[in-house]
Amino acid sequence: MNTLRSLLTGALLAPAVLFPAAAASADTVPQLVAIRADRHPGVDRLVFEFRNGLPPTRIAEYVPKLIEDGSGHTVPVPGAAKLALRFFDARGHNDSGGSTYGAARRTYALPGIVQVVRTGDWEATLSFGVGLAKKVPFRMYTLTKPSRVVVDFTVNYRTVPVKAYFLDLPREPKLKAVSRPVIPPSTANGALQRLFAGPTAAEQAAGLRFVNSGATGYSKLTVTNKVARVYLTGKVKSGGATFTVANHLNATLKQFPTVKWVKIYDAAGKTERPNGNSDSIPESLEP
Fold this sequence. Notes:
Layout (H helix, E strand, L loop, with lengths): L1 H8 L6 E3 L12 E10 L2 E9 L5 E7 L2 E2 L6 E2 L5 E8 L16 E3 L5 E10 L2 E8 L5 E6 L3 E8 L5 E9 L6 E8 L4 H11 L3 H5 L2 E2 L5 E10 L2 E8 L10 H9 L7 E5 L22
């Protein structure tokens, strides 16, 4: 009984699992209608709200990478840790295939939760990934009226504010800084994670955008002798544009007194001026 109770509450870093007595009937499949995340004392709280009751089986576990259901492709998500969530006998779409809960990828300016992304809604299995600033203990539980699956992430570490610079569309090509909490001392790395997460929903509504130029993220950041070197992932290209991901990276990294120049590398490890005190971009980011 104690073992079962531990599974039902989702103890700490172990996979959190709920096993049902019976699956939902086909005409009352739980349907996701909202995703919310907010800060509460000591925790970042992530909430999935359903209609037609709760998914009868829920699983949450840390994984090395997120995999899209069906395709098997890796799903990029910013953060130092990744939590995979699966809801069985549930769906997040209506009969015409449209989402019933909104955006499939959403960013949060919270100390722990960086981004939530859908990784599948296929064959009655609804799955998501959570990018986190740090791997921490979590607890998964349920609430009713309305039906909710809740995941609380323990956030008891110190953060400091840094800036991420996004394109301000009403004043294009101007950049606008937004504040993000990151974990010291790796503040530059934390700033890049927040940059690649993009603006929050409220910031997007205000006209902020992140131009990734095909970059899916970055594999490494080093800072030596005031030179920051960023190694991008994905098929990076400018598409003929003069404003690229390089503009975001330069502004975000140069806020730190330890960085004066930024050298940006493509996925093949190439940049135009790898040596010397100067900024540099890969040839594919030239207009």
